[in-house]
Each structure stands twice: as C-alpha cells, then as structure tokens.
Automatic annotation (TrEMBL):
Name of this protein: Cytochrome P450 4B1
Highest taxon in the source lineage: Eukaryota
GO MF terms, alphabetically ordered: heme binding; iron ion binding; monooxygenase activity; oxidoreductase activity, acting on paired donors, with incorporation or reduction of molecular oxygen
Cofactors that this protein relies on: heme
Record's keyword terms, sorted: Heme, Iron, Metal-binding, Monooxygenase, Oxidoreductase, Signal
Family (UniProt): Belongs to the cytochrome P450 family.
Signal peptide region: 1-15
PROSITE patterns, per database record: CYTOCHROME_P450 (PS00086)
Sequence intervals crossing the membrane: none
PANTHER family the UniProt entry points to: BIFUNCTIONAL ALBAFLAVENONE MONOOXYGENASE_TERPENE SYNTHASE, CYTOCHROME P450 FAMILY 4
Provenance organism: Porphyridium purpureum
C-alpha cells in the first residue's frame, strides 16, 4: 500500500498535466535522460509540450517553466525558496553559503557582503587578474611556439581558480604551472554533488553513507579553506595593513560568523567564482573561432578602443577603465551567456502557497517544486529571434529595446540573483582583451566533435568518438591551436 501511495498514485493524479509520461513508476523520467544531456532533453520536451510542463525525477514531480512572466513571478515577486532537495544535494560542498541559505537569513547576509563589493575591491581584482595572467600567457606562448594542441577549457578553469584564490582569499598558489590537489578536489566535489543532487531528497537521512565520495572530497576542500581562515585570523595587524582587502576579510568582518560559516562562503565562491566563468569563456572561444568575422571585430575593437600597454610581465594589458569601453566584446560575452548558459538547468524552488502563474495561467499547489532552466528560456522564440544563431548584434541598444527584462537568466533574477556577476564580467572582458590582442585561435577538431556536457554546469566536451580524443586518451574538453598574431602573415 505504501508503494502505491508514494510511487503510483501521484503519477495517476497528475497524468493529464502536460509533460512526458513517466517511463516507470520507480524512476519517473530519469532513466532515459542521456548522461550529460539533461538541458537538451528538457529543451526537446519544451518544444513538444510548451512553456510549462511536468517531469518526474524518481517520485518527485517537478514543473519546468520557461515563460518570462512566470519566471518573474517565482523569482522576484514571490521569491519562492530553494527546494529542500536542491539544498540537500549541494550542502555537503557549499554548506550555508549565499547560494543555499534560507530566505530569512539571506537578505542580511547578502547585504553585508555586497556592501564590500565596491570599486576599490574591483580595482584590486583587476591587479590580481594581471598577476595570474602572466602564467597563463606563458602556457599559451608555449603552445603557440610548439604548435601543440591546448585544452582551452581545462587551462582556463585553472586560471579562473587561480584568480578567485588570489583576489578573494589572498592565496598565491599557482595552479597553472604545477599539479595541485585543490583544482582536482573542487572538480571532483562538483561531479559528486551533481550525482548526489539526483537522490539527495530521498537519501539525506543516511548522512555520509548516502554519498561517501562527496563527503570525503568536500571535507578535504573545507580543511584547505579552514587552514586559510586560521592563518588569516592569526595575521598581524601590520601585515593586514600592507595588503589589499579581499573577500576573506569581508566574510570575517560579518559579525557573529564562525569559521564554518566563512568556509561555506569560500566554498560557494570557489564554485561560483571560477567554474561558471571558465566554462562560459570556453564556450565563447568555441563560438568565436568558428566566426572569423566576429574574431576580427573583437581584435579591431581591442586595438582601436583600448590602448594596450606592455605590462611588467611582458604582455598587453588594458587599464581598469579601458575595459568598460569594450562594447562589442561585451555583446559577444552576453550572447555566449545567452546561447550557452553554463548554469543550464537553474535551481529548484518550491511553491509555498496555492498560486496561478501570471504568464501561462497555470495553477500550482502549495509544495510543488519548480525548475527554471535558463537553457530553455534562452531558446524561447517568444523572446529571441533565431535563438539557435550566435549573434552578438542582438545586444545593441536598438535591438535590446522592448526585450523582456527576465528573458536573460544567465545570472538568475530577483533578490537571489548572482552577487558576483559584475566580478565575472570584468574578469572575462579583461582576459578576452588580452587573448585576442595577442593571439589567433583555431579549433583543433571539427566543430561537431564538441558536445554540450552538463553536470552541475554545462561545459564543452570532446566526443569520445572523436579521432583526437581517441588519440589523446585522457578526457579533452576544448582542443584549440594557438598562434601568436605577430607570427602569422
């Protein structure tokens, strides 16, 4: 009888709601979702069932939304909380950081952090990027000189982790030029979290037994972070006065917060501050190398608009203020966020009252889980003309007039949107200005050999059937060839 109530009855009650029929009463629709292909699978269902439909994740009914008015209602007007299943799945790694904390505590916690996200901090970030860029340029120079294939996604991920550690947590560790444990630990924690997220709502009560590898990896990351926190707390006042303020100072300045709280915020920024930015940069590279007209326009703007100085480390470097003049490059960045949103499936929220969604007029009961995938909204023809095309010019001021303000969900929306979006955008524009001023790039494989692969984030990945992948053996993500601009005729 209990099996019937839990697994069978709900699927019968809601059988007339739009959406694919469950493949089984036990697994729902999960069994036939391709590995790494959840966003594309959802998009296919949207095209079949419309802007609101249901899917069954095991025995949990989830309503998938891609109407911008419904999105505004859920995220901004009502600000419905993150679902327990979503929080349970990520909390072993991210703890009580801004991403997962409940709405009651979120406002004050966010305000305390956001108050320090000022221009002085951004200028310090700019300098940290320059320091890290020197190592990245050496890697690219070597690839260009040797004519070797470079895994751009893998290298840019190490780079962004270096930046977040330097600028946010005062770490001078160089992850680019040596093998280090932290990048592999963070990557493993994200992969294990993605797996745990599927069943956490049912197995959380098992504690560490529910996901031993995740809890072990998360513990190692937290120990690394706690060591950084302890060192900072024991820092002399003189040493503190001689260095720029960083995010760790900000977290430690919030009254009443202990080391575990600070560690949760650090872990959240380790994830949100590098993984999302790095994969977006990789997708931008993938799109641009296929469009020489776009690459040349970027290079033209960088050369004409920005006076690039040879920095102390021997590479061109834009000033903080010059970065703001890169209008076309910013449009390319925005278009990448639209077409290839790395947070492709978004977050799960729970409806806390019986409501009617204003856009689709769909009635939802209290307790219903909803999912707002940016991947679907960004492919919705209601808001985007030819959404499958990569077109930076859709972001000109003229073409943006009248567009729904909630049609772009790359950084989410409402009170719980991404606090670091200005941080990410500045970092991206600086990096891209340097790269396209100094190099040309080409894909080292046919474009169709690159697939979208979604775990917690969506990154480019070389297909296993690719000849290059079979030759390299180890998983490759975005293979490119690098050419110094001065070396090409």
């Amino acid at each position: 009888m209990l099996v019937l109530l839990v697994f069978v009855l709900p699927k019968i009650v809601f059988r007339n709601f739009p959406g694919p029929a469950p493949d089984s009463y036990l697994y729902g629709n999960v069994k036939y979702v391709p590995k790494g292909g959840f966003p594309a699978w959802l998009l296919a269902r949207q095209r079949e069932y419309g802007e609101v439909f249901q899917v069954w994740l095991l025995q949990t009914r989830v309503i998938v939304l891609s109407n911008a008015d419904d999105v505004r209602f859920v995220t901004a007007e009502m600000n419905f909380p993150k679902s327990d299943g979503f929080v349970s799945g990520l909390s072993p790694f991210l703890g009580d950081g801004l991403l997962l904390i409940d709405n009651n505590r979120h406002k004050a916690q966010r305000r305390a952090i956001a108050a320090r996200f000022n221009q002085d901090f951004m200028k310090d970030l700019h300098l940290h990027i320059e320091a890290t860029m020197a190592s990245f340029v050496q890697i690219l120079d070597r690839a260009a000189d040797e004519g070797s294939v470079l895994d751009f996604d893998a290298e840019i991920t190490k780079f962004t982790l270096n930046v977040i550690c330097r600028s946010a947590f005062g770490s001078n560790t160089d992850f680019l030029n040596r093998e280090d444990e932290l990048p592999s630990l963070v990557d493993a924690a994200l992969r294990h979290s993605a797996k745990y997220l599927v069943h956490a709502r049912y197995t959380w009560w098992l504690g560490k037994l529910a996901a031993p590898a995740l809890f072990e990896t998360a513990h190692k990351v937290h120990e690394f972070v706690l060591d950084m926190i302890r060192a900072r707390r024991s820092e002399s006042e003189l040493a503190r006065d001689e260095r720029p303020v960083d995010l760790l100072d900000i977290f430690l300045s919030v009254p009443g917060m202990d080391n575990n709280y600070v560690a949760s915020e650090v872990s959240t920024f380790l994830f949100a501050g590098h993984d999302t930015t790095s994969h977006t940069l990789a997708w931008l590279m993938y799109e641009v190398v296929q469009r020489q007209d776009i690459m040349h326009q970027i290079q033209k703007e960088v050369c004409e608009t920005v006076v690039l100085k040879e920095g102390e480390n021997g590479f061109p470097w834009p000033s903080f203020d010059q970065v703001r003049q890169l209008d076309y490059l910013n449009m390319v960045w925005k278009e990448t966020l639209r077409k290839r949103p790395v947070t492709a499936t978004g977050t799960y929220r729970v409806i806390t009252d019986d409501v009617e969604l204003p856009g689709t007029k769909t009635k939802l009961r209290k307790g219903t889980e909803v999912l707002i995938p940016p991947y679907l909204i960004h492919q919705n023809e209601r808001y985007w003309y030819k959404p499958e095309a990569f077109d930076p010019l859709r972001w000109t001021r003229e073409n943006s007039l009248g567009r729904h303000p909630y049609a772009l969900q790359a950084f989410s929306s409402g009170p719980r949107n991404c606090i670091g979006q200005i941080f990410a955008t500045h970092e991206a524009l600086v990096v891209l200005a340097v790269l396209f001023a100094r190099y040309d790039f080409k894909l080292a494989c046919p474009p169709e050999d690159i697939m979208e692969f979604h775990s917690l984030t969506m990154r480019p990945r070389l297909r296993r059937q690719s000849k290059l992948q079979q030759h390299k053996g180890a998983q490759t993500y975005l293979p490119v060839r690098v050419f110094r601009k001065s070396s090409k005729a």
